[in-house]
Design brief:
With about 160 residues, this protein is mainly alpha-helical. It has one helix at about 5-160.
């Protein structure tokens, strides 16, 4: 083995120490860079998390608004259903009233038609009775005239006797 001088050995140790120091500084620099990168990513993650929290808050508010709108719509629907039931009830009542009115009007019309038919029959009977009465009146007049004439002849005969 060749013999290395102390001076050369000490230069080698210094060089080795310098290399180790440089390597250590490089590791520290790389570590600092990695640390800065991690810190930067952490801050970006925090910002992104805040952004997501804000979006979530907006979505929650939107969801609450939709829920409130849904409840209002359900209340309005219930109110309209109640009104519809009321209107259906009134419609049925009016329908029954009109049905009764139609039946009453139909019975009234049938009765009027029956009475008109009876009046027609009575008028015909009256006309026939008037004709018969006129005939009887004429027959009675003829009979009276005949009786007067006969009585007049009898009076004359009885006066002459």
């Amino acid at each position: 083995m060749p013999h290395i001088s102390k001076n050369t050995q000490s230069k080698g140790d210094q060089l080795k120490a310098a290399r180790e120091a440089k390597s250590e500084k490089q590791v520290i620099a790389e570590s600092d860079t990695a640390w800065n990168d991690l810190w930067s990513e952490f801050n970006e993650s925090k910002a992104y998390t805040k952004q997501l929290e804000h979006k979530l808050s907006d979505k929650i508010a939107e969801c609450e608004k939709f829920h409130s709108d849904l409840e209002n719509s359900q209340q309005k629907l219930q109110q309209l259903m109640t009104e519809l039931d009321s209107l259906k009830k009134k419609y049925n009542e009016r329908y029954q009233e009109l049905r009764l009115e139609r039946q009453t009007a139909k019975r009234r019309q049938t009765r009027i038609e029956g009475l008109e038919e009876q009046m027609k029959i009575l008028k015909e009977a009256e006309t026939q009775a008037n004709k018969k009465f006129s005939k009887y009146a004429q027959d009675t007049k003829v009979s009276l005239d005949y009786l007067k004439a006969t009585n007049g002849g009898l009076k004359m005969n009885s006066q002459s006797l």
